[in-house]
Amino acid sequence: MQKRYFGLGLLALAFLFAKFSPFDGLSFQHIGLMTVLGAMAWIGVSMFMGTVIPNPAGPSFSMWKMLLNGALGMIALTAVLTMSIITTDNYVKKELQTYGVIANAVVTGKDKTKLLAKWGKVNYVHKLFISFQDQIGTPQQVGTEVNELEYQRAYNGMTLKIKYSSRDVDVHQLIFEQ
Question: Is residue 150 over pLDDT 80?
Answer without folding.
Answer: yes
